Fold these 3 entries.
Entry 1:
Amino acid sequence: MWEPADFGTFEICWKAECDELVQEPNRERFFLAVGRLLPIWNLLGDDPEVRRLVTADGRALLGRIVPRGDVNTLLGKLGITGAISLTPVSYTHLD
Protein backbone atom coordinates (compact mmCIF):
# COMPACT_ATOMS: atom_id res chain seq x y z
CA MET A 1 0.00 0.00 0.00
CA TRP A 2 1.31 3.44 -0.92
CA GLU A 3 1.47 6.20 1.64
CA PRO A 4 2.42 9.85 1.17
CA ALA A 5 5.95 10.63 2.41
CA ASP A 6 8.08 13.72 2.60
CA PHE A 7 11.42 13.75 0.79
CA GLY A 8 13.49 13.03 3.92
CA THR A 9 11.47 9.93 4.79
CA PHE A 10 11.54 8.77 1.18
CA GLU A 11 15.32 9.21 0.99
CA ILE A 12 15.90 7.14 4.14
CA CYS A 13 13.63 4.35 2.90
CA TRP A 14 15.15 4.42 -0.59
CA LYS A 15 18.71 4.12 0.77
CA ALA A 16 17.64 1.23 3.02
CA GLU A 17 16.16 -0.60 0.01
CA CYS A 18 19.33 -0.03 -2.02
CA ASP A 19 21.55 -1.25 0.83
CA GLU A 20 19.42 -4.39 1.09
CA LEU A 21 19.71 -5.06 -2.65
CA VAL A 22 23.50 -4.82 -2.51
CA GLN A 23 23.57 -7.48 0.20
CA GLU A 24 21.30 -9.86 -1.74
CA PRO A 25 22.15 -9.82 -5.46
CA ASN A 26 19.43 -10.89 -7.86
CA ARG A 27 20.29 -14.15 -9.63
CA GLU A 28 18.28 -15.03 -12.67
CA ARG A 29 18.91 -17.32 -15.62
CA PHE A 30 17.99 -15.95 -19.01
CA PHE A 31 19.19 -16.27 -22.57
CA LEU A 32 20.68 -13.19 -24.17
CA ALA A 33 21.47 -12.77 -27.86
CA VAL A 34 24.42 -10.38 -28.14
CA GLY A 35 26.74 -9.16 -30.86
CA ARG A 36 25.70 -8.11 -34.35
CA LEU A 37 21.94 -8.43 -33.95
CA LEU A 38 20.67 -6.17 -36.72
CA PRO A 39 21.04 -8.81 -39.48
CA ILE A 40 19.02 -11.34 -37.43
CA TRP A 41 16.68 -8.94 -35.58
CA ASN A 42 13.60 -10.31 -37.36
CA LEU A 43 14.49 -13.86 -36.20
CA LEU A 44 14.45 -12.90 -32.52
CA GLY A 45 10.68 -12.88 -32.09
CA ASP A 46 8.08 -10.26 -31.38
CA ASP A 47 9.05 -9.37 -27.80
CA PRO A 48 11.92 -6.89 -28.17
CA GLU A 49 13.05 -6.95 -24.54
CA VAL A 50 16.59 -5.59 -24.30
CA ARG A 51 18.80 -5.98 -21.23
CA ARG A 52 22.17 -4.70 -20.20
CA LEU A 53 24.23 -6.67 -17.73
CA VAL A 54 27.70 -6.58 -16.26
CA THR A 55 29.52 -9.87 -15.81
CA ALA A 56 31.48 -10.82 -12.70
CA ASP A 57 34.70 -9.88 -14.52
CA GLY A 58 33.35 -6.43 -15.43
CA ARG A 59 32.34 -6.93 -19.08
CA ALA A 60 29.17 -5.08 -20.10
CA LEU A 61 26.77 -6.88 -22.44
CA LEU A 62 23.75 -5.48 -24.23
CA GLY A 63 21.40 -7.81 -26.02
CA ARG A 64 17.93 -9.16 -26.74
CA ILE A 65 16.25 -11.60 -24.39
CA VAL A 66 15.43 -14.94 -26.00
CA PRO A 67 12.62 -16.73 -24.13
CA ARG A 68 13.60 -20.23 -22.95
CA GLY A 69 11.05 -21.89 -25.20
CA ASP A 70 12.41 -20.07 -28.26
CA VAL A 71 16.12 -20.87 -27.87
CA ASN A 72 16.13 -24.04 -30.00
CA THR A 73 13.83 -22.45 -32.60
CA LEU A 74 16.23 -19.52 -32.93
CA LEU A 75 19.22 -21.85 -33.22
CA GLY A 76 17.42 -23.73 -36.01
CA LYS A 77 16.68 -20.49 -37.87
CA LEU A 78 20.38 -19.65 -37.65
CA GLY A 79 21.35 -23.06 -39.03
CA ILE A 80 22.87 -24.25 -35.76
CA THR A 81 22.28 -27.95 -35.21
CA GLY A 82 22.11 -29.77 -31.89
CA ALA A 83 19.35 -28.68 -29.57
CA ILE A 84 20.09 -27.33 -26.13
CA SER A 85 18.61 -29.56 -23.45
CA LEU A 86 16.42 -27.48 -21.16
CA THR A 87 15.37 -29.77 -18.33
CA PRO A 88 13.28 -28.82 -15.29
CA VAL A 89 16.49 -28.90 -13.24
CA SER A 90 18.19 -26.43 -15.59
CA TYR A 91 15.27 -24.05 -15.09
CA THR A 92 15.74 -23.98 -11.33
CA HIS A 93 19.52 -24.13 -10.87
CA LEU A 94 21.68 -21.12 -11.57
CA ASP A 95 25.06 -22.83 -11.89
Entry 2:
Amino acid sequence: MFDCMYFALRVLVVACLVTCVQPEFRVYRDHQGSACVRVDAQFSISVTASKGNKLIGEKRLDNMTRFKFYSGSCDAAHAIVILNCTAGARTMFRFMFKTRGDAVVVIYSFSFFVLDLFPQLTPAVQDNRYKGYSSPGAQIGPVGTSYRCGRLQTIPLSNGDVPFETRRYNFSVTLSLRKIHAQAFNMSRGEFGPAVDCPAEAAGSPSVVAAVVVVLVLVVPIAVAMAATILVLYRHSGNILPRVTKVMTNIH
Protein backbone atom coordinates (compact mmCIF):
# COMPACT_ATOMS: atom_id res chain seq x y z
CA MET A 1 0.00 0.00 0.00
CA PHE A 2 2.82 2.39 0.89
CA ASP A 3 4.48 1.60 -2.45
CA CYS A 4 1.26 2.59 -4.25
CA MET A 5 1.02 5.83 -2.27
CA TYR A 6 4.67 6.63 -3.02
CA PHE A 7 4.14 5.94 -6.73
CA ALA A 8 1.01 8.10 -6.80
CA LEU A 9 2.90 10.93 -5.10
CA ARG A 10 5.71 10.68 -7.65
CA VAL A 11 3.20 10.80 -10.51
CA LEU A 12 1.54 13.86 -8.96
CA VAL A 13 4.88 15.66 -8.60
CA VAL A 14 5.91 14.85 -12.18
CA ALA A 15 2.51 16.00 -13.50
CA CYS A 16 2.85 19.28 -11.61
CA LEU A 17 6.31 19.88 -13.03
CA VAL A 18 4.92 19.38 -16.53
CA THR A 19 1.63 21.29 -16.30
CA CYS A 20 2.14 23.91 -13.60
CA VAL A 21 4.95 25.79 -15.33
CA GLN A 22 3.67 29.21 -16.35
CA PRO A 23 5.52 31.03 -19.15
CA GLU A 24 6.60 34.56 -18.39
CA PHE A 25 7.36 37.28 -20.91
CA ARG A 26 9.17 40.51 -20.00
CA VAL A 27 10.05 43.42 -22.25
CA TYR A 28 12.64 46.07 -21.34
CA ARG A 29 13.12 49.59 -22.65
CA ASP A 30 16.88 49.10 -22.40
CA HIS A 31 19.29 46.43 -21.16
CA GLN A 32 19.84 48.10 -17.78
CA GLY A 33 16.31 49.11 -16.83
CA SER A 34 13.44 47.23 -15.27
CA ALA A 35 10.73 45.52 -17.31
CA CYS A 36 8.21 47.93 -18.81
CA VAL A 37 5.69 45.20 -19.67
CA ARG A 38 5.28 41.77 -18.11
CA VAL A 39 2.90 38.97 -19.05
CA ASP A 40 2.48 35.60 -17.33
CA ALA A 41 0.00 33.55 -19.35
CA GLN A 42 -1.21 30.13 -20.37
CA PHE A 43 -3.22 30.01 -23.58
CA SER A 44 -3.86 28.18 -26.83
CA ILE A 45 -5.01 29.21 -30.30
CA SER A 46 -7.44 27.10 -32.32
CA VAL A 47 -7.58 27.70 -36.08
CA THR A 48 -10.06 25.92 -38.33
CA ALA A 49 -10.21 25.96 -42.12
CA SER A 50 -13.46 25.29 -43.95
CA LYS A 51 -14.95 25.61 -47.40
CA GLY A 52 -18.67 26.08 -47.44
CA ASN A 53 -20.04 23.81 -44.73
CA LYS A 54 -17.15 21.34 -44.94
CA LEU A 55 -14.39 21.35 -42.32
CA ILE A 56 -11.05 21.07 -44.12
CA GLY A 57 -8.52 21.21 -41.30
CA GLU A 58 -7.89 22.30 -37.71
CA LYS A 59 -4.73 23.42 -35.93
CA ARG A 60 -4.21 23.99 -32.20
CA LEU A 61 -1.21 25.99 -31.00
CA ASP A 62 -0.37 25.93 -27.29
CA ASN A 63 1.97 28.54 -25.86
CA MET A 64 3.56 25.88 -23.61
CA THR A 65 4.98 24.06 -26.64
CA ARG A 66 4.49 26.04 -29.84
CA PHE A 67 5.53 29.63 -29.02
CA LYS A 68 9.25 29.61 -28.22
CA PHE A 69 10.53 33.08 -29.06
CA TYR A 70 9.25 36.50 -28.16
CA SER A 71 10.09 40.18 -28.46
CA GLY A 72 8.35 43.47 -27.81
CA SER A 73 8.46 47.18 -27.22
CA CYS A 74 6.89 49.78 -24.97
CA ASP A 75 6.52 53.49 -24.37
CA ALA A 76 4.36 55.67 -22.16
CA ALA A 77 1.11 54.84 -23.97
CA HIS A 78 1.67 51.61 -25.93
CA ALA A 79 3.21 48.20 -25.22
CA ILE A 80 3.37 44.96 -27.15
CA VAL A 81 4.64 41.42 -26.56
CA ILE A 82 5.12 39.38 -29.76
CA LEU A 83 5.36 35.58 -29.65
CA ASN A 84 6.69 33.61 -32.62
CA CYS A 85 5.40 30.11 -33.27
CA THR A 86 7.55 27.09 -34.08
CA ALA A 87 5.03 26.23 -36.80
CA GLY A 88 6.47 29.09 -38.84
CA ALA A 89 8.27 32.35 -38.14
CA ARG A 90 5.41 34.20 -39.83
CA THR A 91 2.90 32.78 -37.32
CA MET A 92 2.66 35.27 -34.45
CA PHE A 93 0.53 36.02 -31.41
CA ARG A 94 0.55 39.45 -29.75
CA PHE A 95 -0.49 40.96 -26.44
CA MET A 96 -1.10 44.64 -27.23
CA PHE A 97 -1.71 47.23 -24.52
CA LYS A 98 -2.59 50.91 -24.78
CA THR A 99 -3.79 53.62 -22.45
CA ARG A 100 -7.25 55.11 -22.79
CA GLY A 101 -7.45 58.00 -20.36
CA ASP A 102 -6.57 56.55 -16.95
CA ALA A 103 -7.41 52.98 -18.02
CA VAL A 104 -5.48 50.21 -19.77
CA VAL A 105 -6.92 48.37 -22.76
CA VAL A 106 -5.68 45.00 -24.03
CA ILE A 107 -6.08 43.54 -27.53
CA TYR A 108 -5.14 39.97 -28.46
CA SER A 109 -3.91 39.51 -32.02
CA PHE A 110 -2.95 36.47 -34.13
CA SER A 111 -1.61 36.32 -37.69
CA PHE A 112 -0.40 33.61 -40.06
CA PHE A 113 0.13 32.58 -43.68
CA VAL A 114 -2.37 29.95 -44.76
CA LEU A 115 0.13 27.39 -46.03
CA ASP A 116 2.28 27.67 -42.90
CA LEU A 117 -0.53 26.16 -40.83
CA PHE A 118 -2.35 24.18 -43.51
CA PRO A 119 0.23 22.94 -46.05
CA GLN A 120 -2.23 20.30 -47.27
CA LEU A 121 -4.46 22.97 -48.79
CA THR A 122 -4.17 24.06 -52.39
CA PRO A 123 -5.84 27.45 -52.19
CA ALA A 124 -6.13 30.03 -54.88
CA VAL A 125 -3.61 32.85 -54.86
CA GLN A 126 -5.89 35.12 -52.86
CA ASP A 127 -6.12 32.47 -50.11
CA ASN A 128 -2.36 32.32 -49.61
CA ARG A 129 -2.19 35.80 -48.18
CA TYR A 130 -1.34 36.91 -44.69
CA LYS A 131 -4.28 36.51 -42.31
CA GLY A 132 -4.66 38.79 -39.31
CA TYR A 133 -7.19 38.34 -36.51
CA SER A 134 -7.76 40.32 -33.32
CA SER A 135 -10.11 40.70 -30.37
CA PRO A 136 -12.02 43.87 -29.51
CA GLY A 137 -10.22 46.13 -27.06
CA ALA A 138 -11.07 45.22 -23.46
CA GLN A 139 -10.50 47.55 -20.50
CA ILE A 140 -8.58 45.66 -17.80
CA GLY A 141 -8.00 48.23 -15.07
CA PRO A 142 -6.46 51.58 -14.14
CA VAL A 143 -2.93 52.53 -15.16
CA GLY A 144 -0.47 51.34 -12.51
CA THR A 145 -2.38 48.15 -11.67
CA SER A 146 -1.93 44.62 -12.98
CA TYR A 147 -4.63 42.48 -14.56
CA ARG A 148 -5.17 38.96 -13.25
CA CYS A 149 -7.55 36.20 -14.30
CA GLY A 150 -7.41 32.55 -13.27
CA ARG A 151 -10.47 31.24 -15.10
CA LEU A 152 -10.79 30.11 -18.68
CA GLN A 153 -11.71 32.87 -21.14
CA THR A 154 -12.79 31.82 -24.64
CA ILE A 155 -12.29 34.77 -26.98
CA PRO A 156 -13.17 34.69 -30.71
CA LEU A 157 -10.74 36.64 -32.90
CA SER A 158 -12.03 38.33 -36.03
CA ASN A 159 -10.57 39.84 -39.21
CA GLY A 160 -13.71 41.32 -40.72
CA ASP A 161 -13.96 38.84 -43.60
CA VAL A 162 -17.40 37.89 -44.87
CA PRO A 163 -18.05 34.50 -43.22
CA PHE A 164 -18.98 31.28 -45.01
CA GLU A 165 -18.11 32.26 -48.53
CA THR A 166 -18.39 29.12 -50.65
CA ARG A 167 -15.91 30.27 -53.30
CA ARG A 168 -12.82 30.05 -51.10
CA TYR A 169 -11.49 28.83 -47.80
CA ASN A 170 -12.74 30.43 -44.60
CA PHE A 171 -10.84 30.48 -41.33
CA SER A 172 -11.99 30.71 -37.74
CA VAL A 173 -9.65 31.64 -34.88
CA THR A 174 -10.39 31.24 -31.17
CA LEU A 175 -8.19 32.16 -28.22
CA SER A 176 -8.49 30.00 -25.09
CA LEU A 177 -6.90 32.05 -22.33
CA ARG A 178 -6.55 29.80 -19.30
CA LYS A 179 -4.57 32.12 -17.00
CA ILE A 180 -3.10 35.58 -17.26
CA HIS A 181 -1.36 38.10 -15.03
CA ALA A 182 -0.16 41.14 -16.92
CA GLN A 183 0.89 44.76 -16.55
CA ALA A 184 2.12 47.19 -19.16
CA PHE A 185 2.55 50.62 -17.57
CA ASN A 186 3.94 52.17 -14.39
CA MET A 187 5.64 49.02 -13.15
CA SER A 188 7.89 49.37 -10.10
CA ARG A 189 11.21 47.56 -10.57
CA GLY A 190 9.58 45.13 -12.95
CA GLU A 191 7.13 43.85 -10.34
CA PHE A 192 3.36 43.63 -10.65
CA GLY A 193 1.30 46.36 -9.04
CA PRO A 194 -1.97 45.78 -7.16
CA ALA A 195 -4.06 43.25 -9.09
CA VAL A 196 -7.45 43.89 -10.64
CA ASP A 197 -9.14 40.49 -10.97
CA CYS A 198 -11.40 39.61 -13.88
CA PRO A 199 -15.13 39.40 -13.08
CA ALA A 200 -16.46 36.08 -11.86
CA GLU A 201 -18.17 34.04 -14.53
CA ALA A 202 -21.95 34.32 -14.72
CA ALA A 203 -23.88 31.36 -13.35
CA GLY A 204 -25.56 30.67 -16.68
CA SER A 205 -22.43 30.85 -18.82
CA PRO A 206 -21.56 27.81 -20.97
CA SER A 207 -18.48 26.78 -19.00
CA VAL A 208 -20.29 26.98 -15.66
CA VAL A 209 -23.17 24.93 -17.05
CA ALA A 210 -20.67 22.42 -18.43
CA ALA A 211 -19.00 22.14 -15.02
CA VAL A 212 -22.37 21.47 -13.36
CA VAL A 213 -23.16 18.81 -15.96
CA VAL A 214 -19.80 17.11 -15.34
CA VAL A 215 -20.43 17.07 -11.58
CA LEU A 216 -23.88 15.58 -12.10
CA VAL A 217 -22.54 12.94 -14.47
CA LEU A 218 -19.96 11.91 -11.87
CA VAL A 219 -22.13 12.14 -8.75
CA VAL A 220 -25.48 10.76 -9.90
CA PRO A 221 -24.24 7.23 -10.78
CA ILE A 222 -22.51 6.99 -7.38
CA ALA A 223 -25.67 8.10 -5.58
CA VAL A 224 -27.77 5.60 -7.55
CA ALA A 225 -25.35 2.77 -6.74
CA MET A 226 -25.39 3.66 -3.03
CA ALA A 227 -29.19 3.79 -3.00
CA ALA A 228 -29.39 0.40 -4.71
CA THR A 229 -26.99 -1.12 -2.16
CA ILE A 230 -28.99 0.26 0.76
CA LEU A 231 -32.21 -1.05 -0.79
CA VAL A 232 -30.74 -4.55 -1.20
CA LEU A 233 -29.51 -4.61 2.40
CA TYR A 234 -32.89 -3.41 3.63
CA ARG A 235 -34.75 -6.09 1.70
CA HIS A 236 -32.52 -8.87 3.04
CA SER A 237 -32.43 -7.56 6.61
CA GLY A 238 -35.71 -9.36 7.37
CA ASN A 239 -34.09 -12.71 6.51
CA ILE A 240 -30.74 -12.05 8.15
CA LEU A 241 -31.93 -10.85 11.57
CA PRO A 242 -34.14 -13.89 12.38
CA ARG A 243 -31.26 -16.23 11.50
CA VAL A 244 -28.87 -14.36 13.77
CA THR A 245 -31.45 -14.40 16.59
CA LYS A 246 -31.98 -18.16 16.18
CA VAL A 247 -28.25 -18.87 16.30
CA MET A 248 -27.81 -16.77 19.44
CA THR A 249 -30.76 -18.59 21.09
CA ASN A 250 -29.25 -22.00 20.33
CA ILE A 251 -25.93 -20.91 21.84
CA HIS A 252 -27.59 -19.98 25.10
Entry 3:
Amino acid sequence: MYRKQQKSIIKHMDFLILDILMLIISYIAATIIRDGWHSLRANAAFLTMLGVLILLQVMVALQGNNYNDILRRGYLVELKCVLIQNAIVLAAAFTFMFITKSQPKYSRLVFGYLLIINTLLTYGAHLIWKRVVRGRMVNSKERTHLLVISEYAGLEACIRRLQSEWYKEYKITGVVVYDRQMKGDVINNISVVADMDELFQYLKKEVVDEVFLNIDGNNQERLTITEDLLEMGITVHININMDLGQGQLPNPIVHNMSGCAVLTTSIKTATFYQMVAKRMMDIAGVVVVYK
Protein backbone atom coordinates (compact mmCIF):
# COMPACT_ATOMS: atom_id res chain seq x y z
CA MET A 1 0.00 0.00 0.00
CA TYR A 2 1.38 3.36 -1.02
CA ARG A 3 1.10 6.41 1.22
CA LYS A 4 -0.13 9.57 -0.45
CA GLN A 5 2.29 12.47 0.02
CA GLN A 6 -0.05 15.32 -0.84
CA LYS A 7 -0.64 16.66 2.67
CA SER A 8 2.45 17.65 4.63
CA ILE A 9 0.28 18.22 7.71
CA ILE A 10 -0.45 14.48 7.86
CA LYS A 11 3.12 13.47 7.17
CA HIS A 12 4.37 15.82 9.88
CA MET A 13 1.55 15.66 12.41
CA ASP A 14 4.18 15.09 15.09
CA PHE A 15 5.44 18.63 14.50
CA LEU A 16 1.91 20.03 14.81
CA ILE A 17 1.47 18.29 18.16
CA LEU A 18 4.87 19.60 19.24
CA ASP A 19 3.92 23.15 18.18
CA ILE A 20 0.68 22.98 20.17
CA LEU A 21 2.55 21.84 23.29
CA MET A 22 5.09 24.65 22.91
CA LEU A 23 2.26 27.16 22.42
CA ILE A 24 0.52 26.02 25.61
CA ILE A 25 3.75 26.20 27.63
CA SER A 26 4.61 29.61 26.16
CA TYR A 27 1.20 31.13 26.87
CA ILE A 28 1.23 29.86 30.45
CA ALA A 29 4.76 31.21 30.95
CA ALA A 30 3.88 34.59 29.40
CA THR A 31 0.83 34.93 31.64
CA ILE A 32 2.81 34.04 34.77
CA ILE A 33 5.58 36.52 33.90
CA ARG A 34 3.02 39.31 33.42
CA ASP A 35 0.48 38.60 36.18
CA GLY A 36 1.92 35.90 38.45
CA TRP A 37 0.77 32.37 39.29
CA HIS A 38 -2.51 33.53 40.78
CA SER A 39 -3.68 34.71 37.34
CA LEU A 40 -4.11 31.09 36.23
CA ARG A 41 -6.68 30.23 38.90
CA ALA A 42 -10.24 30.03 37.61
CA ASN A 43 -9.44 32.53 34.88
CA ALA A 44 -12.10 32.16 32.19
CA ALA A 45 -10.44 34.71 29.89
CA PHE A 46 -7.12 32.83 30.09
CA LEU A 47 -8.74 29.48 29.25
CA THR A 48 -10.76 31.02 26.41
CA MET A 49 -7.71 32.55 24.79
CA LEU A 50 -5.71 29.34 25.27
CA GLY A 51 -8.41 27.42 23.40
CA VAL A 52 -8.51 30.08 20.66
CA LEU A 53 -4.73 29.97 20.23
CA ILE A 54 -4.73 26.17 19.92
CA LEU A 55 -7.54 26.32 17.36
CA LEU A 56 -5.73 29.02 15.39
CA GLN A 57 -2.51 26.99 15.46
CA VAL A 58 -4.31 24.03 13.92
CA MET A 59 -6.07 26.21 11.33
CA VAL A 60 -2.83 27.90 10.26
CA ALA A 61 -1.17 24.49 9.93
CA LEU A 62 -4.05 23.12 7.83
CA GLN A 63 -4.27 26.15 5.55
CA GLY A 64 -0.58 26.91 5.13
CA ASN A 65 2.54 25.09 3.97
CA ASN A 66 4.49 25.50 7.21
CA TYR A 67 5.62 21.88 7.33
CA ASN A 68 6.64 21.45 3.69
CA ASP A 69 10.22 20.13 3.48
CA ILE A 70 10.64 20.74 7.21
CA LEU A 71 13.28 18.00 7.54
CA ARG A 72 15.43 19.65 4.85
CA ARG A 73 15.34 23.20 6.18
CA GLY A 74 18.50 24.94 7.36
CA TYR A 75 18.74 26.86 10.63
CA LEU A 76 17.85 30.29 9.24
CA VAL A 77 15.00 29.02 7.06
CA GLU A 78 13.57 27.16 10.05
CA LEU A 79 13.72 30.29 12.22
CA LYS A 80 12.00 32.31 9.49
CA CYS A 81 9.21 29.74 9.15
CA VAL A 82 8.65 29.61 12.92
CA LEU A 83 8.50 33.42 13.13
CA ILE A 84 6.02 33.65 10.26
CA GLN A 85 3.80 30.95 11.74
CA ASN A 86 3.76 32.59 15.19
CA ALA A 87 3.09 36.03 13.71
CA ILE A 88 0.12 34.70 11.75
CA VAL A 89 -1.33 32.99 14.83
CA LEU A 90 -0.98 36.16 16.94
CA ALA A 91 -2.44 38.33 14.18
CA ALA A 92 -5.43 36.01 14.01
CA ALA A 93 -5.74 36.16 17.82
CA PHE A 94 -5.82 39.98 17.73
CA THR A 95 -8.47 39.78 15.01
CA PHE A 96 -10.54 37.50 17.25
CA MET A 97 -10.24 39.95 20.16
CA PHE A 98 -11.25 42.85 17.92
CA ILE A 99 -14.31 41.06 16.55
CA THR A 100 -15.44 39.88 20.01
CA LYS A 101 -14.52 43.24 21.62
CA SER A 102 -12.54 41.38 24.29
CA GLN A 103 -9.31 43.44 24.07
CA PRO A 104 -9.68 44.86 27.62
CA LYS A 105 -9.48 41.35 29.09
CA TYR A 106 -5.99 40.70 27.73
CA SER A 107 -2.63 42.36 28.11
CA ARG A 108 -0.63 43.19 25.00
CA LEU A 109 2.50 42.53 27.03
CA VAL A 110 1.43 38.91 27.47
CA PHE A 111 1.28 38.49 23.70
CA GLY A 112 4.68 40.14 23.34
CA TYR A 113 6.14 37.65 25.82
CA LEU A 114 4.25 34.87 24.04
CA LEU A 115 5.80 35.71 20.67
CA ILE A 116 9.33 35.71 22.08
CA ILE A 117 8.98 32.61 24.28
CA ASN A 118 7.05 30.56 21.72
CA THR A 119 9.49 31.41 18.94
CA LEU A 120 12.46 30.28 21.04
CA LEU A 121 10.76 27.13 22.35
CA THR A 122 9.28 26.10 19.01
CA TYR A 123 12.53 26.74 17.15
CA GLY A 124 14.52 24.71 19.66
CA ALA A 125 11.93 21.93 19.70
CA HIS A 126 11.95 21.73 15.90
CA LEU A 127 15.74 21.42 15.77
CA ILE A 128 15.77 18.68 18.41
CA TRP A 129 12.82 16.75 16.98
CA LYS A 130 14.18 16.95 13.42
CA ARG A 131 17.39 15.34 14.62
CA VAL A 132 15.38 12.55 16.25
CA VAL A 133 13.25 11.99 13.14
CA ARG A 134 16.25 12.12 10.80
CA GLY A 135 18.14 9.57 12.87
CA ARG A 136 15.11 7.33 13.01
CA MET A 137 14.60 7.54 9.24
CA VAL A 138 18.24 6.77 8.46
CA ASN A 139 18.34 3.75 10.80
CA SER A 140 14.76 2.59 10.32
CA LYS A 141 14.17 -1.03 9.37
CA GLU A 142 10.74 0.04 8.11
CA ARG A 143 12.14 1.79 5.03
CA THR A 144 10.67 0.41 1.83
CA HIS A 145 12.88 -1.70 -0.44
CA LEU A 146 13.21 0.07 -3.80
CA LEU A 147 14.38 -1.61 -7.02
CA VAL A 148 15.52 0.64 -9.88
CA ILE A 149 14.80 -0.43 -13.46
CA SER A 150 16.51 1.91 -15.89
CA GLU A 151 18.11 2.19 -19.29
CA TYR A 152 21.89 2.22 -19.16
CA ALA A 153 22.17 5.70 -20.69
CA GLY A 154 20.54 7.46 -17.74
CA LEU A 155 21.23 4.92 -15.02
CA GLU A 156 24.08 6.57 -13.12
CA ALA A 157 22.36 9.96 -13.06
CA CYS A 158 19.14 8.30 -11.91
CA ILE A 159 20.83 6.48 -9.02
CA ARG A 160 22.78 9.57 -7.97
CA ARG A 161 19.59 11.57 -7.79
CA LEU A 162 17.78 8.92 -5.77
CA GLN A 163 20.76 8.61 -3.41
CA SER A 164 21.10 12.39 -3.03
CA GLU A 165 18.03 12.53 -0.78
CA TRP A 166 19.38 12.58 2.79
CA TYR A 167 16.21 11.62 4.61
CA LYS A 168 14.48 9.19 2.31
CA GLU A 169 11.87 6.65 3.31
CA TYR A 170 13.25 4.03 0.94
CA LYS A 171 16.39 1.94 0.56
CA ILE A 172 17.73 1.12 -2.91
CA THR A 173 18.27 -2.63 -2.79
CA GLY A 174 19.26 -3.26 -6.38
CA VAL A 175 19.31 -2.25 -10.04
CA VAL A 176 18.08 -3.90 -13.22
CA VAL A 177 19.45 -2.51 -16.50
CA TYR A 178 16.66 -2.49 -19.07
CA ASP A 179 18.69 -2.63 -22.28
CA ARG A 180 21.92 -4.46 -21.28
CA GLN A 181 23.07 -7.70 -19.67
CA MET A 182 24.95 -6.42 -16.61
CA LYS A 183 24.01 -8.76 -13.77
CA GLY A 184 26.73 -8.80 -11.12
CA ASP A 185 28.08 -5.33 -11.92
CA VAL A 186 28.08 -2.53 -9.34
CA ILE A 187 26.94 0.99 -10.22
CA ASN A 188 27.35 3.78 -7.65
CA ASN A 189 27.69 1.13 -4.91
CA ILE A 190 24.40 -0.49 -5.95
CA SER A 191 24.48 -4.04 -7.34
CA VAL A 192 22.84 -5.03 -10.61
CA VAL A 193 20.78 -7.88 -9.17
CA ALA A 194 19.19 -9.29 -12.32
CA ASP A 195 18.80 -8.90 -16.06
CA MET A 196 15.40 -8.08 -17.54
CA ASP A 197 14.68 -11.69 -18.52
CA GLU A 198 15.19 -12.68 -14.85
CA LEU A 199 13.31 -9.74 -13.33
CA PHE A 200 10.13 -11.46 -12.24
CA GLN A 201 11.95 -14.54 -10.94
CA TYR A 202 14.03 -12.16 -8.81
CA LEU A 203 10.94 -10.35 -7.54
CA LYS A 204 9.37 -13.64 -6.47
CA LYS A 205 12.42 -14.54 -4.35
CA GLU A 206 13.43 -11.17 -2.88
CA VAL A 207 11.66 -8.49 -0.84
CA VAL A 208 10.81 -5.55 -3.10
CA ASP A 209 8.15 -3.04 -2.04
CA GLU A 210 8.51 -0.44 -4.79
CA VAL A 211 10.06 -0.07 -8.24
CA PHE A 212 11.44 3.11 -9.81
CA LEU A 213 10.92 2.82 -13.56
CA ASN A 214 13.22 4.96 -15.72
CA ILE A 215 12.64 3.67 -19.25
CA ASP A 216 12.47 5.86 -22.34
CA GLY A 217 10.66 3.34 -24.50
CA ASN A 218 7.22 3.35 -26.09
CA ASN A 219 4.23 3.55 -23.78
CA GLN A 220 3.13 -0.03 -24.35
CA GLU A 221 6.45 -1.48 -23.13
CA ARG A 222 6.36 0.57 -19.95
CA LEU A 223 2.68 -0.09 -19.47
CA THR A 224 3.14 -3.86 -19.78
CA ILE A 225 5.96 -3.89 -17.22
CA THR A 226 3.97 -1.64 -14.89
CA GLU A 227 0.85 -3.80 -15.08
CA ASP A 228 2.87 -6.95 -14.35
CA LEU A 229 4.46 -5.28 -11.32
CA LEU A 230 1.09 -4.08 -10.04
CA GLU A 231 -0.29 -7.61 -10.29
CA MET A 232 2.46 -8.63 -7.86
CA GLY A 233 1.36 -5.91 -5.42
CA ILE A 234 4.42 -3.73 -6.05
CA THR A 235 4.12 0.07 -6.10
CA VAL A 236 5.61 1.62 -9.25
CA HIS A 237 7.18 5.09 -9.58
CA ILE A 238 7.45 6.17 -13.23
CA ASN A 239 9.76 8.97 -14.26
CA ILE A 240 7.28 11.24 -16.03
CA ASN A 241 9.98 12.85 -18.13
CA MET A 242 8.93 9.89 -20.23
CA ASP A 243 5.19 10.51 -20.61
CA LEU A 244 2.75 7.74 -19.72
CA GLY A 245 -1.02 8.16 -19.77
CA GLN A 246 -2.41 8.32 -16.23
CA GLY A 247 -5.81 7.08 -17.32
CA GLN A 248 -4.48 3.58 -17.96
CA LEU A 249 -3.15 3.05 -14.44
CA PRO A 250 -4.91 2.63 -11.04
CA ASN A 251 -4.61 5.30 -8.31
CA PRO A 252 -2.13 7.57 -10.16
CA ILE A 253 -0.37 10.20 -8.02
CA VAL A 254 2.06 12.76 -9.43
CA HIS A 255 4.67 13.96 -6.92
CA ASN A 256 8.36 14.66 -6.36
CA MET A 257 10.76 11.86 -5.43
CA SER A 258 14.33 12.92 -4.69
CA GLY A 259 14.10 15.71 -7.23
CA CYS A 260 12.48 13.52 -9.90
CA ALA A 261 8.94 14.22 -11.04
CA VAL A 262 7.27 10.81 -10.93
CA LEU A 263 3.90 9.23 -11.45
CA THR A 264 3.25 6.67 -8.74
CA THR A 265 0.71 3.91 -9.22
CA SER A 266 -0.40 1.27 -6.74
CA ILE A 267 -3.20 -1.22 -6.30
CA LYS A 268 -4.23 0.58 -3.10
CA THR A 269 -3.33 3.92 -1.53
CA ALA A 270 -3.62 4.88 2.12
CA THR A 271 -6.60 7.03 3.09
CA PHE A 272 -6.48 10.19 5.19
CA TYR A 273 -7.59 8.33 8.32
CA GLN A 274 -5.15 5.46 7.76
CA MET A 275 -2.32 7.99 7.50
CA VAL A 276 -3.48 9.71 10.71
CA ALA A 277 -3.60 6.39 12.55
CA LYS A 278 -0.17 5.34 11.29
CA ARG A 279 1.39 8.71 12.16
CA MET A 280 -0.03 8.52 15.71
CA MET A 281 1.46 5.02 16.12
CA ASP A 282 4.82 6.28 14.78
CA ILE A 283 4.82 9.13 17.31
CA ALA A 284 3.97 6.76 20.14
CA GLY A 285 6.77 4.43 19.05
CA VAL A 286 9.36 7.22 19.02
CA VAL A 287 8.26 8.41 22.47
CA VAL A 288 8.62 4.88 23.87
CA VAL A 289 12.05 4.36 22.26
CA TYR A 290 13.50 7.68 23.46
CA LYS A 291 11.81 7.67 26.86
